């Protein structure tokens, strides 16, 4: 399988990257080189093989269903490029 | 007095205990070495001299009161991927501009609890994506090693290139690093240092910027096997804050050193003999086999039939996980924001400017393979192949193999700005061909220097172990180190 420029632009939109036509053309070549490389996986017989979900067999650890942390709004917004009163500020989302 | 920066961690530990010098004197020696060398090597992206001196003085006071920890007064460098409270943490990226976390990663917190001193943050490939440290927003790191008679700058490997270069050039006593496909072991091999990627789940991932969560593991880069064992003992822990941290006590890895490998079975996988592999790599491998045989180990040819599919499967699984993990960098919560006419354009502008070319490439691949209609063909298939890769290892370990010996890399360090690799991303990816299998199977792997090539550049061997059997790797790597000796670059910087 390979990608064309339109697909590159669609994927860039999904990944939230602004790409110029020139960048899209360049990425098309690079992505196709990588997709060509991974193509060899199609020769592996995977009939009846379970997909890996965890490299180490272990039951997922669960914590008690209780509030164990919090009250850190100032810490959480401390690195924001734009914040006010412990809220993140963003361009208007709802008209 | 000898140059204090030439001491290994174990040597410095003994002499600090004997009160030959103080932690502050040792720290000052390293800070001076960094000042003198960093302009040429670019290993550190930020240094913390005031904090280092303060912690070193506090360490001396603790020692005075008889409260010395396992790493008391040992100056370390920290890969920029680890969150360090109030200190530059940018994962080598522009998108995290100015980020100073309000918390400390579990691994670094463990080191400071044992008395270690932080010298600063080490350069790396952006978000740990790279094999040459050339994708860093802060520019490439220069390998302290040069080919004999040449003044050409070489890469230190990556992504933990700053960690490996700083350890090799004696700009820290040891360093933290991380490994998703070979990012500890490949740079260790390129710089004549020792690097271990422990079993998945051994070190907590809490506070480490995530690249590919099912593959990422922290580990040390050190000057010798003993130092790597000392560091891993301190870095590893059981952590409530990481649900994949495994509930197993951390053994005393240093105690495993000096043990015999007599009667051990070392597997030699046929599939690691690649077409076009340089003769020197083959010769090094044969030398390693001979050393272990001489030490009494039994050598057993083995087969790991799915080896060649590990790298292509990795280049589906790792980008897929990265595309999801890196979605958080959106110009809202931290770092860079580039304005746009609405929120979507702000996201797109921020991410276009904030991420470098390699990160974008991988996020694009990840987004594509996870997109509607392609998930089964790519991602699901890759995860099934991953099951087969792990099964290969389980089979040979089940047949009595104690550890597997392979080359660490397919070549020695190459030049900065290598044209072939710049032209074809897949060529660069091939650097990890011997190391990536280990991440795919979640196993521990150690790279140990084993010799120099004809140009005088270091080459490494890799040992792969059973899950949570890092002790066997340290013991066996120590035998190789005893036979091979240690390798230190001639100082030119």
Helix content of chain A: 25-40%
- Large-scale geometry of chain B: globular
Total beta-strand segments of chain B: 11
Ranges of chain B where pLDDT stays below 50 over 5 or more residues in a row are none
Q: What is the SS-derived class of chain B?
A: alpha/beta
Summarize the structure.
The complex is a heterodimer of chains A (95) and B (493). Chain A has 95 residues and is mostly helical.
Description:
The complex is a heterodimer of chains A (95) and B (493). Chain A has a two-stranded antiparallel sheet. Chain A has 3 helices and 2 strands. Chain A is mainly alpha-helical and 95 residues long. In chain B, strands 1-3-2-4-6-5-10-11-9-7-8 form an 11-stranded mixed beta sheet, with helices on both faces. In chain B, helix 2 runs antiparallel to helix 3 (49-64) and helix 9 (310-325) crosses helix 12 (376-398). The mean pLDDT of chain B is 97.
Secondary-structure blueprint:
The complex is a heterodimer of chains A (95) and B (493).
Chain A lengths: L4 H10 L6 H18 L34 H5 L5 E2 L2 E2 L7
Antiparallel strand pairs in A: 1-2
Chain B lengths: L8 H9 L5 H19 L2 E4 L1 H16 L10 E5 L26 H8 L3 E6 L38 H8 L5 E6 L5 H7 L2 E4 L19 E6 L2 H11 L29 E5 L9 H16 L3 E5 L7 H16 L17 H12 L2 H14 L5 H23 L4 E5 L11 H5 L1 H5 L6 H6 L3 E8 L5 E8 L4 H15 L9
Parallel strand pairs in B: 2-3, 2-4, 7-8, 7-9
Antiparallel strand pairs in B: 1-3, 4-6, 5-6, 5-10, 9-11, 10-11
Helix pairs in contact in B: 2-3, 5-6, 7-16, 9-11, 9-12
Features:
heterodimer, A: 95 residues, two-stranded antiparallel ribbon, 2 strands, 35% helix, B: 493 residues, 11-stranded mixed β-sheet, 16 helices, 39% helix
């Amino acid at each position: 399988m390979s990608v064309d420029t339109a697909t590159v632009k669609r994927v860039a939109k999904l990944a939230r990257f602004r790409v110029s036509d020139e960048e899209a053309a360049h990425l098309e070549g690079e992505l196709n080189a990588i997709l060509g490389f991974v193509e060899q996986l199609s020769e592996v017989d995977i009939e009846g093989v379970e997909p890996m979900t965890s490299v180490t067999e272990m039951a997922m650890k669960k914590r008690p269903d209780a509030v164990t942390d919090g009250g850190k709004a100032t810490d959480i917004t401390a690195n924001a490029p734009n914040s006010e009163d412990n809220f993140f500020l963003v361009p208007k989302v709802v008209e | 007095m000898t140059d204090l920066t030439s001491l290994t961690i174990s040597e410095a530990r003994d002499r600090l205990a004997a009160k030959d010098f103080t932690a502050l004197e040792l720290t000052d020696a390293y800070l001076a070495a960094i000042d003198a060398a960093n302009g040429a090597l670019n290993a550190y992206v930020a240094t913390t001299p005031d904090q280092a001196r303060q912690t070193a003085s506090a360490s001396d006071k603790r020692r005075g009161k008889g409260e010395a920890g396992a790493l008391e007064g040992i100056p370390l460098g920290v890969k920029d991927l680890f969150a360090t409270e109030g200190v530059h943490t940018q994962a080598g990226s522009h998108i995290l501009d100015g980020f100073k976390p309000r918390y400390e990663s579990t691994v670094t917190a463990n080191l400071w609890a044992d008395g270690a001193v932080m010298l600063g943050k080490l350069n790396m490939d952006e978000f740990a994506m790279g094999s040459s440290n050339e994708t860093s927003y802060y520019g490439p790191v220069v390998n302290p090693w040069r080919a004999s008679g040449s003044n050409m700058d070489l890469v230190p490997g990556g992504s933990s290139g700053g960690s490996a270069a700083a350890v090799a050039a004696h700009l820290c006593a040891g360093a933290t690093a991380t490994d998703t496909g070979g990012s500890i072991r490949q740079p260790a091999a390129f710089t004549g240092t020792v690097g271990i990627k422990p079993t998945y789940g051994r070190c907590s991932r809490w506070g480490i910027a995530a690249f590919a969560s099912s593959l990422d593991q922290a580990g040390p880069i050190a000057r010798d096997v003993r130092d790597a064992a000392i560091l891993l003992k301190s870095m590893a822990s059981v952590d409530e804050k990481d649900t994949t941290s495994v509930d197993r006590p951390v053994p005393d890895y240093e105690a495993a050193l000096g043990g015999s490998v007599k009667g051990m079975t070392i597997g030699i996988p046929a599939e690691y003999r690649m077409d076009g592999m340089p003769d020197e790599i083959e010769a090094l491998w044969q030398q390693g086999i001979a050393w272990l045989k001489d030490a009494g180990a039994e050598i057993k040819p083995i087969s790991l039939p799915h080896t060649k599919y590990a790298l292509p499967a990795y280049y589906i699984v790792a980008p897929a996980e990265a595309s999801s993990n890196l979605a958080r960098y959106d110009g809202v919560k931290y770092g860079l924001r580039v304005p746009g006419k609405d929120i979507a354009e702000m996201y797109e502008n921020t991410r276009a400017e904030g991420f470098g070319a390699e990160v974008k490439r991988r996020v694009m691949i990840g987004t594509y393979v996870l997109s509607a209609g392609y998930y089964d063909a790519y991602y699901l298939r890759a995860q099934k192949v991953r099951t087969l890769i792990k099964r290969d290892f389980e089979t040979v370990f089940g047949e009595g193999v104690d550890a597997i010996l392979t080359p660490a890399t397919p070549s020695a360090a190459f030049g900065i700005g290598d044209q072939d690799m710049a032209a074809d991303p897949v060529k660069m990816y091939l650097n990890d061909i011997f190391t990536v299998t280990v991440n795919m199977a979640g196993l521990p792997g150690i790279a140990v220097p084993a010799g120099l090539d004809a140009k005088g550049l270091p080459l490494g061997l890799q040992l792969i172990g059973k899950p949570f059997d890092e002790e066997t790797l340290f013991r066996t790597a120590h035998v190789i180190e005893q036979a091979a000796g240690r390798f230190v670059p001639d100082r030119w910087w």
